[in-house]
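A reminder from the course coordinator: this example appears on the midterm review sheet, so study it carefully.

Given structure:
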């Protein structure tokens, strides 16, 4: 069965959720109060943060996003839209 035009279009669109490590690591660690260092550069966070940085550097998913959702400030999220003529967000 051939894919519908909607599903074909959806497969080519992407959303990037932007949250810097200085925000995401402490935010994620709040689930484990006192058990994890909130500093993204702490040795205990090296595996996670370093792995993510490698992925971001090698794959550059942000540049392929049609929408960038900046969730740095939970109280004030921002949505940015890119059109094909805009280039990367």
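Designed residues:
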């Amino acid at each position: 069965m051939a894919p519908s035009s909607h599903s074909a279009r959806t497969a080519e669109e992407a959303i990037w959720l932007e949250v810097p490590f200085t925000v995401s690591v402490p935010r994620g660690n709040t689930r484990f109060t006192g058990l994890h260092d909130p500093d993204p550069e702490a040795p205990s966070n090296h595996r996670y943060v370093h792995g993510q940085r490698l992925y971001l550097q090698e794959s550059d998913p942000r540049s392929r996003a049609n929408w960038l959702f900046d969730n740095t400030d939970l109280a004030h999220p921002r949505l940015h839209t890119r059109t094909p003529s805009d280039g990367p967000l």
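The two ends are 35 Å apart (CA to CA). The CA atoms of residues 36 and 80 lie 32 Å apart.
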